[in-house]
Amino acid sequence: MGEQGPGSPQRRWHGVHKALADPLRIRLVEALWEEPQSARELADRTGLPADRLYYHLGRLEAAGLVGIAEYRPLAHGKVERVYAPAVTEPPGDAATPEEMADFLGSMLDATRADINAAYRSREAGARREVDLLRGALRLTDEALAELREHIAGLADRFGDRDAPGSWTRVVVALVDLQDRPASPDAPAPDPPPPGPQTAPAAEDLPGRPS
Fold this sequence. Notes:
3-stranded antiparallel β-sheet; mainly alpha; 3 strands
């Protein structure tokens, strides 16, 4: 690519976490991962009017997360846009801690919606498996890195999109409950600024006769 400009990837991807700080948008992106779909098809999946989805799809498109894969012809000469996930992996977005918290909270809200839908389906007599485990582990930095690597290996092992079976949502959260010790490679913190200067006591002044 050429030099960085107004249409550079960094600017185009800016706001990724803001765009995903909504559980509905997360669900839309995840649905498009399965296959490209139009707003009408996404409306059937979400149970929401297509008109309501155009705003959210526009936000995702502006953030570079989805794009228009094709224009599908309809009756009477009309066409509909078919959306698909962006081909390029987004770079790290310079999100603030608040934006990251909103984004991760939306992921949990989307997961809650998946769980609710699964149990509604089970009440209707269908079969859906739901497993939720919550616990706490004491992990050193080395153990945490090993666990992350193990989780990534499992995702690669079972991540074949063309494999037979049912789509299953997998959510893994690793959240420290305590502050970790500072890394030995971390730079030392800056010394605190000097406090207000205090004038010496009269008896300490040099040259004062006793």
